[in-house]
Amino acid sequence: MSDRLRAFYGQVVAVAVALAIGAIIILMVDESPAKVFVTLVRGAFGDQAKIAGTLLQTTPILICGVAACVGLRGGMFNVGIEGQLFLGGFAAALVGFALPLPSGLHMIVALVVAVLAGAAWVSIPAYFRTRYNTNEVVSTILSNYVAVLLTSYFTIFLFKRPGGWSETPPILPSAYLPEIFSFSRLNWGLVVGLVLAVAVAWLFRHTARGYSASMVGSAPKFAEYGGIDVKRQGFIVLLASGAIGGLAGGVETLGVHHRFMEGFAPGFGFDGLIAALLANGSPIGTIFTALFFGALRSGSLLLEVDTNASREIITVIQALIILSVSAQVLMKRRGDSTAGERRWKF
Amino acid sequence: MSNAPSAAAADNAVEIIGITKRFGAFTANENVNLTVRRGEIHAIIGENGAGKTTLMNILFGLLQPDEGKIRIDGGDVVFTDPAAAIAAGLGMVHQHFKLVPSLSVAENVFLGMEIGRNGLIDHAAQIEKTRGLSERVGLKVDPTERVGLLSVGIEQRIEILKVLVRGARTIILDEPTAVLTPQESRELFQTLRRFVAEGMTVIFISHHLEEVMEVSDTVTVLRNGKHVATRSTAELSKADLVRMMVGRDVSFDRRPREATHGKIVLDVRNLWARDERRLPALRDVSFTVRAGEIVGIAGVAGNGQTELAEVLAGLRPASHGEARLNGRDLTTLAPAEIRKAGFAHVPGDRMVRGVDGGASISSNLLMGRQHKAPWSLRGLLDWKAADKEAEAMIKRFDIRARGPHDTVKRLSGGNIQKVVLAREFTNDPDFLLIDQPTRGVDIGAQEAIHSEIMNQRAAGRAVLVISVQLDELLTLADRILVLFNGRIMGEVAGDKAADETIGMMMAGLQPAGKERELAL
Which residues belong to the signal peptide in this entry (chain A) (predicted)? Predict the structure, then answer.
């Protein structure tokens, strides 16, 4: 428990350091950091509609974050969530406009297809990882570009809605994820994300398979020795992570945009990965870190209206958080500065 | 008492006076006094957790004492960090080496104090100086080699060179032999003797008695953080040392046993395997282990023991031959199936294979049982049952921990080993493979572990013990096989094993009168 508490404090310090450096940068553009931060908070939580807007931004980050958590806990660094999200989003749209089904069932089928699309997309790097021990970080990153451009191609050349925009025809209302409030596009996707986070945490802790997967993640040689099929487990973990990434895309399509378009949901996959890293791979922790990043995104909308700072300051702060979290990991290991390299020796 | 260095005090390289160090409620060192004369090899011995490493970390400035003071060469000093200790002529070789694998030997030696020329690193000068130093002190290394490719023995030499380059006159070595083969240990001792002959001082932490007896001039014994005695080594016997360390008499005589003649449980035939470099590491190995029998594998580390253990456990493919456990060929099975066939395995590299250090004791004891009742039911884990089982095992194996939720890496080496034994011995196996049963384990725990292994024998299990410590095999084994260069050189009955016979075979020589063809 004290370990976990210490980890928590560490992350809080990392965020605080990032915000402090962010403040200095804001000063450099002649703006008051206090004003910027207050505006951010107001923009994120100022009234009902703004809170709903924040939660709307939180939803895809949360689901992508849970996808990343599955990978991290199982020892697989899935950096391809962005691509799985695009594939899932496109697949859900395809089912949504091209396959008329009864209300409700239509939505579920579309989500299932999104899940399958995400899993199918990650199965390529997963296969190479299992069969040839290819580094999954590199192959999943590369698969992002292919996914984004492939879905663009599909959208522009095969399924383009007649008219000016690079987008598919709208999906049928029978496939919509219902909205929670009348005043916002916030939808049941958020509930899907929350349930998913709790479910994944529970699976890792309370099932034999979850135990095996997390052992492969934390001590692969021990797991192998203990009779766990490490390669198979790694494949399953990547597949599950990709499937959830696909789900994130499906939720975004069916809940928010109601169509697939070029450049849809940019960066949610990466934000989710950062949220998961900041939460140390804990799905429950990711609920809060995703909310934090969601609030940053949503709060930044007000930034350019009320202050002289560009909303890109949010990207800067996120980058600073990544830096300070990684610096913290390095500092924790400073007792043995060669730990990182040693890993490869064995 | 005067602070001015008297003539007698100036003969002392190091004086530690009344050092106390507490970590919360735990007292690691209590009023410890230690005087090390210049030019001696001073051994500090004690069980794990006796406070040896803490004391040395204080001396080296890595920790600050709560009370007490330190004198170097007769003058009071306060070391706030290791840099100050290094400046005062101290050097420490840690138990776990801190080298950069991707850099060359010379680069590692001069890391942080590179020789520069025109703002660039002068590699040629570094290589030349490393070579010169290495030849002068007799620590053979190739300065241009990359450290990642070298053995632990050589890595240790590099660590010592690093310390020398930084101008150390007093060298502290923390359990230097724990990772070495007997050969490498002997070479290290020769080096240490050469150092003291040149007027340097060596402080040597160990819990290996033979070595202490062999190499040291003076011994200081610590127990439970307190200073027990400082004596001249010549006045002491091994038994005296053990009594001072443990606080009671401990026996490492051969364990009494009933003769047994069980059925063959493990039958290894013509087994070959390759190492990481794809070179043959096991060559045509054949032997059997019967129920109720302990077979020992002796040999200098790196002669195929690791490969033998890994092939049997299904962690490395065999290139030829078979190993049948109750009739099933292990070389064709996956680790999970091998375990199901009645195989238990205490691995040699405990922290990598044997446990997940960051996880709890319960979680570590769960490995291999996550699909079995009462630990799990229909794929769902029952952590309450797991904790209960863990508590029972903690009790039975006398694991010193706060409870089943204690993190494994916080335990001492001996207690971590007991966690592994507890898991493996309670699986009701037919065959146990125990690789280095007591490596890095203190004496009190060694005795307990040996008793557990004898219990397994008495329960009719077939046991294969691999150990680089010959005395351990003489204590335990019914038969001893000697591995050399991947080949079984010969077999000796455990009760008739004269040290010289085994020693010759470990060195690759056939004992007289037992001519055997050495076909390669």
Answer: none
CB of B98 closer than 8 Å to CB of B174: no
pTM of the model as a whole: 0.77
What is the CA angle B80-B82-B84, rounded to 5?
A: 65
Residue of B nearest to A340 (CA): B100
- Rounded CA-CA distance B195/B214 in Å is 16
Task: Return the ∠ at Cα A198 (arms to A193 and A203), rounded to 5°.
Answer: 120
Cβ A208–B379 below 8 Å, yes or no?
yes
Which amino acid is it at A8?
A: F
Distances (CA, A) of B400 to B376, B393, B414, B455: 26, 11, 9, 21
Check: CB of residue A61 under 8 Å from CB of residue A85: no
* Cα–Cα distance, A43 to A307 (Å, whole number): 12
Q: What is the 3-state secondary structure (H, E, C) of B247-288?
A: CCCCCCCCCCCCCCCCCEEEEEEEEEEECCCCCEEEEEEEEE
pLDDT digits (tens, 9 = 90+) for B25-53: 778 899 999 999 999 999 998 876 688 88
pLDDT band at B516 (very low <50, low <70, confident <90, very high): very low
Its sign, for the CA torsion A65, A280, B408, B405, is negative
Which residues of chain A neighbour B315 with C-beta distances below 8 Å? 224-225
Set out the domains of chain B in order of their start, with CATH numbers: 1-89+169-250 (3.40.50.300), 99-167 (no CATH), 252-342+429-510 (3.40.50.300), 360-424 (no CATH)
Q: Which residues contact A324 (CB under 8 A, 6 or more apart)?
A: A13, A14, A15, A17, A18
Rounded CA-CA distance A161/A171 in Å is 11
Taking CA atoms, B387 is separated from B384, B392, B399, B425, in Å, by 5, 9, 14, 18
SS3 of B93, please?
Answer: strand
- In the three-class reduction of DSSP (H, G, I as helix; E, B as strand; rest coil), residue B407 is classed as strand
Instruction: Output the pLDDT for position B343.
Output: 95
The mean pLDDT of A158-184, rounded to a whole number, is 87
SS3 of residue B182 by DSSP: helix
> Mapping DSSP to helix (H, G, I), strand (E, B) and coil, where does residue B226 land?
strand
Query: How many degrees, rounded to 5, is the angle at CA B96 between CA B92 and CA B101?
Result: 105
Nearest to B101 among A209, A221, A341 (CB): A341
Residue of A nearest to B382 (CA): A206
Q: What angle is formed at CA B93 by the lines to CA B89 and CA B95, rounded to 5 degrees?
A: 155
Task: Tell me whether residues B380 and A346 touch, CB distance under 8 A.
Answer: no
The residues spanned by each domain of chain A are 58-299
Contacts of A218 in chain B (CB under 8 A): 356, 358-359
Q: Which helix (H) or strand (E) holds B383?
A: helix B383-396
Residue B252 has pLDDT above 80, yes or no: no
The answer to whether B347 contacts chain A (CB < 8 Å) is: yes
Contacts of A89 (CB under 8 A, 6+ apart): A114, A151, A249, A250, A252, A253, A260, A264, A265
Please report the pLDDT score of residue A100 as a whole number: 92
The Cα B427–Cα B206 span in angstroms is 34
Can you tell me the distance from the alpha carbon of B367 to that of A222, in angstroms, rounded to the nearest whole number? 9
Distance, in angstroms, between B379 CA and closest chain A CA? 5
Supply the pLDDT for residue A306.
85
H and E: helices and strands count for chain A: 14, 0
Distance, CA of B449 to CA of B428 (rounded, Å): 17
State the angle between helix axes of A230-252 and A189-206 in degrees (0 to 180), rounded to the nearest 10: 170
Which residues lie closer than 8 Å to A93 by C-beta, 6 or more apart? A168, A171, A253, A259, A260
User: Which residues on A lie below 8 Å from B354 (Cβ)?
Assistant: 222, 225
Residue A223: its chain B contacts at CB < 8 A?
367
Query: Which residues, in sequence order, are CB contacts of B98 under 8 Å at separation 6+?
Result: A336, A337, A338, B159
Chain A residue whose CA is closest to B151: A345
Q: Any CB–CB contact under 8 A between B339 and chain A?
A: yes
